[in-house]
## 1
Amino acid sequence: MALKLVIGNKNYSSWSMRPWLALRANDIAFEEIFIPLYTGDADKKRILSFTHSGKVPALIDGDVTVWDSLAIIEYVAERFPEARLWPEDRARRAHARSISSEMHSGFMALRNECGMNLHRPVRAIALSDDARANVARIEQIWIECRARYGELGPFLFGTFGAADAMFAPVVHRFRGYAIPVAPQARAYMDTMMALPAFRDWTNAGLAETLVIDKLETV
Ligand SMILES: N[C@@H](CCC(=O)N[C@@H](CS)C(=O)NCC(=O)O)C(=O)O
């Protein structure tokens, strides 16, 4: 039975983007179930019919339901070990898990001030001190990974993996809000933006027409 991934609008849903990329970038087949966000009770009930969390993304694998982006990526990594979503080396895997968890649980100021919205014209805004500290920390994470693992390939741990999937929406935030970054961080953003799965998501998001006022940002 095919995997099903329940996702929100590609234009806005940064959480949906992460597991979608992890699957698509590894050519893992799945059926996509799109439910528009914040459109009212009917769509909310549809989300609830898949996961009692009431949030996307959710992955359905037969009688297994997994919700929350990082838990889904962990499940996919176990279910498809050949995709090597996490580094094989234990120390590197610990590093990859640390930065993925840091992404998953943090960077609130950046998330709040620079919501992902692919349609928004590229424009800089004044960031708070907290958001600027978030940007600096993300740059530090990327630069450290590139310095330590750059010889293995152009992604954070060499080839595209779970940590890259977790940070992918940040690439859109940095790009969309014209946030200046160091050359090594810019090179990583360029690598991500050239990834076919990233481009597929982005193009599909740009083709969406639904505007959700709640998610429109300055
Ligand atoms: N921590 C969760 C966050 C999920 C989340 O907040 N999803 C948002 C969209 S990106 C959502 O489903 N919102 C719909 C709602 O709350 O009704 C994850 O990593 O998956």
## 2
Amino acid sequence: MKLFGTPGSPYARKARIALTEKKIAFEFVVDRPSNPDSQVPRYNPLGKVPVLLLDDGKAIYDSAVIVEYADVTGSGPKLIPENFTDRIEVRRWEALGDGITDAIVSLTHDARYGEASCETAAWYLKQLKKIERGLAAAERDIGARACCFGSAFGLADIAIGAALGYLDRAYTEYNWRGKYPGLKRYAEILFARESFRASAPPTDK
Ligand SMILES: N[C@@H](CCC(=O)N[C@@H](CS)C(=O)NCC(=O)O)C(=O)O
């Protein structure tokens, strides 16, 4: 099977980490949706990565669906709990991580790609507040634990870890480790995992 994505995409990283954790072999195909020759729109009408292309030709998107596919078809510990209440809580964590990532993309995209922005200072502040409230909530709820939910690594950690990793890549001037020492401690444990190391984003823009 093939996973279409870019090395720097935090959503593709979620999918890569889940596939790796669940011991599913895949070929990572670097394909930028902004490239006119991109194959991505053939498989995802939304023109976004990640897309998982199965050997039978079926395409699966987006990152949340790919993680669930990996969790059910792969091996090893579950990333998403079976129990309804636990699953809802882990999905809430995923929404928090993805939402922080969405706000980082909104805040940094124009500057990183040298595009003129029509957004106001108030709009940027609104995105920053989403990031800051999100990080504060994550820090408070993780507390002294090594994982977001319970005592085992799972989807919640994949989503929050992808968001923190994307802060390092896209918003380098933001000192989140200084503002959130609990997240700094947590991220040191998380970023040492093989699945995170293998999918670490490039440091160039
Ligand atoms: N909710 C989607 C978001 C995917 C997404 O926005 N991917 C970006 C790359 S980081 C993309 O493909 N953008 C191209 C575009 O929107 O045209 C997911 O979780 O997979």
## 3
Amino acid sequence: MDTAASDPTGTATADDEAARDALVGRLFEAALGTFDLAALHIGERLGLYPALAEGPRTAPELAAATGTAPRYIREWLEQQAVTGILAVDDTDAGEDERRYSLPNGHREVLLHPESLAFMAPVARLMMGMAAQTPSLIDAFRTGAGLSWEAYGADVREGQASMNRPMFANLLGPDWLGSIPDIDARLRADPPARVADIAVGGGWSAIALARAYPKIHVDGLDLDPSSIDLARANLATTEVADRVTFSTRDAADPGLAGQYDLATIFEAVHDFSQPVAVLSAVRNLLAPGGSLLVADERVAEQFTAPGDAVERFMYGFSFLLCLPNVLVDDPSAGIGTVMRPSVLRRIATEAGFSRVDVLPIEADFWRFYRLVK
Ligand SMILES: C[S@@+](CC[C@H](N)C(=O)[O-])C[C@H]1O[C@@H](n2cnc3c(N)ncnc32)[C@H](O)[C@@H]1O
């Protein structure tokens, strides 16, 4: 890089120049990553990957199979091949004769919604959040919030689809299976009742019902569109007779019921009134009942630079979760980076007698058991 032009004062050290060049490279890589996510989002929304999974296609064939415009599809296919997500049989063939295919090793990542390797929804989520940037710039000036509803279907569905594989594969056998008394109660008679609070797209409630064939699960969420999504997801399963979904504010002290277990997955940091929610949930617990909370596995304290989990969570925080909670005034205004000490304080203020951190291994979440 031209040092004289970028450092007119001539004070840059060799370390400064190395740091400058590293940042240039890092931002260039981030731009490439952003293009990959945008292309993935388009491919996912238009059903291009399932069509390619049926067999290699030329651009005109893929366009015809998916009801899309051939010239756009040609550009998309070329981008996907150049970036290494798709394979191409003969780069020298004419632009409409080349055949593109989905490598076997990429299928699970792009097409299998219950695989732990499924990453396709991250694109929908990221693009949906980024679409709100103009409103967010205003919000940074005014302090106003942006509602979960305002982020729209891409964020709602992307978030639900991102968590679905963990619930489908780990919630029953690994997570609850490692808590012997809860696991035993969920298998016993009379059938246990579980309240799944802030249930979003409903996959956790569905996974609970699948893992424990006797239990009944009531899922609730403040957001009506999330409950519509949860009901649509439930309709595709075989557990619809043991799961209900309703639109409710979990902070409502009028919530009624008697539950052996309550769960809150990745949502305590999203509550504008977390103490009110945990108090209301505490009142729902039968004697001996517990609340299981899973929230972000962020560090105990702020440190910088942080690791990938910390960076990931701060990204979600400024772009989504903090604006969501600031919709309400007053608001606890927590945001995605909820340190364990914050959860302990909220739980104590809500009247829970004990907060145990559970020895469950998970890359992104920490598990807490709140005892009534
Ligand atoms: C990050 S999503 C998590 C959804 C789901 N638990 C999952 O893991 O996929 C957070 C959810 O909290 C819900 N939420 C926020 N405040 C709430 C409240 N006061 N009562 C009920 N749900 C609430 C939002 O509508 C949103 O669906």
## 4
Amino acid sequence: MPEAQQHLAPASLEEVRDGLASAGYLASEAAALVSFLAYKLDKPVLVEGPAGVGKTELAKALSRYAQRPLVRLQCYEGLDEAKALYEWNYRKQLLRIQTEAAGTAWQDVQEDIFSEDFLMARPLLTAISVKEPVVLLIDEIDKTDQEFEAMLLEILSDFQVSIPELGVVEATTQPLVLLTSNNTRELTEALKRRCLYLWLDYPDAERELEIVRLHVPELPETITRRLIEIIHMIRNLDLKKPPSIAESIDWARAMLLLGATDIDRSLFDRTMSIIVKHRTDLDVVAERVGVKLDDGVLGQVRPG
Ligand SMILES: Nc1ncnc2c1ncn2[C@@H]1O[C@H](COP(=O)(O)OP(=O)(O)OP(=O)(O)O)[C@@H](O)[C@H]1O
Ligand SMILES: [Mg+2]
């Protein structure tokens, strides 16, 4: 690791956790530990877990905390090397050939047009060839296919890229790499072996309360508590898509806008679609949770 990078590397796990908190991310013990180790061991981190639990945000927060630019590769089906790694600038190459005086040896032109001047770096190449180290986020890797994963292995283990016409491009700086996955398919063992692993799950009530408070500090504490209590109850139902942290935050924002002083049945019914987004789930939640609100089983709002 270059000296400058070493200098900025955190000295302890607590330093990372506090640093992330000051960057607006309340990390679990596991998330803080893996982030710390990623720094120290120079290993990529594979973050898996349900939607909306803070996988992408962890990378963004690490970038803010470490004061490194974020280079993001958003994965999708059909993503290929040309969009992820590098691409030759054909237009520029063509112009170069056209401006070449007749009679120039093809060999000379060829050497020229396959030089770095004609290369367009895409996120992966950018992340290892910039001067200052970055945080590289490879988001939703499970959307790509296994061939793409195989291509990634060279970068993740050796921090280099082989370009047939140019040779091997070695990393000038080492990025902090985070890969996220929603688990829509099993990733290859080869990829997993090269990464540290973090499973992010829904947080416990106390931490989620802190997270929502951080995002919506103006909402009265009692309402925030009640809201989290209801969210956790909904998560325990067998739903197609349980509400995530993202939905808790949205719901809290809505409560604030509506000036809610309590979450009663009527308000719940009107705002339920902010947290539950499947037709069948809505029915289940209305029946199981709405009724409890009617009965007052969820109890009176506890003082904060
Ligand atoms: N630990 C946390 N501290 C602060 N905010 C958080 C935390 N976890 C999640 N959030 C917030 O929750 C929201 C959702 O997070 P994020 O987009 O990172 O989820 P995700 O896991 O990447 O979801 P998806 O799989 O749908 O992409 C964001 O607004 C983020 O700021
Ligand atoms: Mg995400």
